[in-house]
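Thread: "does anyone have the structure for this chain?"

Original post by V.I.:
We have the sequence but no experimental structure in hand. Need at least a predicted one for the grant figures.
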Amino acid sequence: MIAAAEFKAGCLQLMDRVRETGVEYTITKHGTPVARLVPVSESSRPTFFGAGKGSVLNFDRPFDPVDGTYDIDREA
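Reply from O.Q.:
Generated one for you, tokens below.
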């Protein structure tokens, strides 16, 4: 555990230590935990490509028009 003021003063050094050793820190404010500084694993990094995989459950005819009215179809 590390106090927020102490974390603020040595943030960059603590980040380097976390990257190098894998140690985790809990940052506290007035003795209450408010945040954690943990190493990032390669597998937990978000990636753009493939992020939507599996999000469309069923879409049989993707080129059919969608029912409904659109602004472009309205009379001015």
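V.I.: this helps a lot. The chain has two helices and three strands.
O.Q.: and The longest strand covers residues 32-37.
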